[in-house]
Each structure stands twice: as C-alpha cells, then as structure tokens.
Amino acid sequence: MKLRPTAGAVPGLPPAPPPELSVRDVTVRFAGLTALDAVSFTVAPGSVHALIGPNGAGKSTCFNVLSGLYRPASGQVRLGDTPLTGLPPHRIAALGVARTFQNIVTTEGTVADNLMLGRHVLSRAGFAATALRLPGVAREQRAHLDRAREIAELTGLAGHFDTPVALLSYGDCKRVELARALCLEPRVLLLDEPVAGMNAAERARTAGTVDAVRAELGLSVLLVEHDMGLVMRLADEVTVLDFGRRIAHGSPDEIRRHPEVLRAYLGTPGEDPA
Ligand code: ADP
Ligand code: MG
C-alpha cells in the first residue's frame, strides 16, 4: 500500500528527506559510573543506523539523551541545524524525533485509542477546543483517525484496530508501540529493541514492517537491537558501544569482522588487524 506523504508536506511532492541526526561527544554520568563517554555518530538522512553493544553498554542511555529524558554532562545532539540537547521530551517529539521503549508500556485502551494518543501531539485544535466541540474539530479528529488507520495498516495492525491492547499477542503489543511512535509523523524514529522477546516468525514480520516504514515514509531509523541477524538485514551503518565507549563504526559487513566487536561480544581477542 502507498501512504500519503507525512503531514506538512506539499501535496503531490514526495516528503522532504529527514534532517541528519548528529550526536557529538555525548557524555552521561551516573554517580561515578560513566554510562556514555564522549560518544559520537551520525544517522544519515533516510538511513537505518544500528546502535549495538553488550548489556550495559549505554544504548538505552543514549536513547534517553536523544529523546530528552536525560541531559548529558557534555556533548551535543542536533537534528539538522536544530540543537536538541537540553530540550524537554515533548519539544523533541514535536521536532520529529519519536521513540519506542524497550519495555512495553501500553496496556490500556484499544489499538485505535493508543494511536490517537500519538495524534494528539499534532492536533491543532488542542484539548480545550476538543472538549468544547468547536466547529472543525470533528473534521480534524476524523482526519487523524483516518491517518491512524493507515498507520495501523502499514504496521500490520489493521485487523486489530478496535481491539483492546490487553487482548493482543506480545508481538502485536510491540507493534502498537511502533505504530504509536509513527503517529507522531516522526522524521527520525528511535527503536529500542523492537523484537526483544519475540519468536522467529514475529521477528521476521517486524523486520518487514521496519523495512516498509522506511520505504513508505522515508524516515531515518536509529535501531537498538540484540538480534544480529536483524541488525545485519536492516542496517546501513552500525555503531558499536562497549562500557559507554564507541569501539567500532562501519557497514554491517565491516562490523561482523571487526576484532574489537568480536572481543566485546565473545570475550575473546579478535584477529590482529595488522
Ligand atoms: P544498555 O541499554 O546498553 O543495556 P544502559 O544504557 O541501560 O545500557 O546502561 C548503561 C549503564 O548505565 C549501565 O551500567 C546501567 O546500570 C547504568 N544506568 C543506566 N541508567 C541508569 C540510571 N538511571 N541510574 C544509574 N545508572 C544507570
Ligand atoms: Mg537497554
């Protein structure tokens, strides 16, 4: 299926490519522990960039900085020319950076309810006008509902649109998280372990969904994932963290053979690069 260009785009023209997301020398400390140590990487417009590393490497911390939940001790995050560092989460979301959480948080309402929560951020009418049922509000609500339905279709949830999320399979719940984030019409999507806990069939389905989302919506994706098969299949570029430091960066093929990466993951020295 083909989706309309994202909100704000000029009708008839493809959506503008997303701006580059750049992370420069970001450091985060927790009471003596350096969770991120001067980490830098760039998510190129329209690419899938994977952030990988062993447990505790700092991946979720990095997501929390990007989405405004943590303020780094030093360093800069920029979306195009716009500094994101220090902005609160709702401002960052409104600028087009949306995230999913590693652990599912959604347990209430129907799929439609959850997706409409995502749409509310975009609602021009706002809550007061909606509560007062001002003219034009019903029309805008219908447009949001139509868009939520399209996003449900793109993410394989169309058949569950009016189903309470409490009745969904685990895989479908994770998909609701993804769809909710897409309802913000992001230009950059941050996915924290989108297939964690899924079986092989659900994993393959979600990989297909991420591919479709990127192709249809033309957005950039920053992907944190332990499933190396998925990372190798989806990513254009990979950044590897270990104990808060960036230890490698490159194409999936380069990363697969990188001695530092092999050492970090397997605890064995890699081949001498010389
Ligand atoms: P990953 O997502 O790569 O598994 P995290 O970013 O969750 O790693 O954690 C990186 C390090 O920072 C870990 O040592 C973790 O215990 C620590 N950490 C993460 N969040 C906090 C916090 N809010 N307070 C204290 N330490 C934290
Ligand atoms: Mg994590």
In short:
The protein has 274 residues and is an alpha/beta fold. It has helices spanning 59-66, 89-94, 111-120, 126-132, 137-154, 170-182, 200-217, 228-234, 252-256, 259-266; strands at residues 21-30, 33-43, 48-52, 74-79, 82-83, 97-99, 188-192, 220-224, 237-242, 245-250. Bound molecules: adenosine-5'-diphosphate (ADP) and magnesium ion.
Alpha carbon gyration radius:
19 Å
Helix content: 25-40%
What's the number of extended β-strand segments?
10
Secondary-structure-based class equals alpha/beta
CATH superfamily of the largest domain: P-loop containing nucleotide triphosphate hydrolases
| The number of domains | 2
Averaging pLDDT over every residue, what do you get? 87
The CATH C-level name of the largest domain is: Alpha Beta
Shape: globular
With helices defined by DSSP (H or I, 4 residues minimum), what is the helix count? 10
The H/E string reads EEEHEEHEHHHHEHEHEEHH
Strand order of the largest sheet: 6-7-8-3-9-10
Q: Please give the oligomerization state of what you see.
A: single chain
The CATH architecture of the largest domain can be named as 3-Layer(aba) Sandwich
Percent strand equals 15-25%
Distance between the termini: 50 Å
Which sheet architecture does the biggest sheet show?
6 strands, mixed
For this structure, the CATH topology of the largest domain is: Rossmann fold
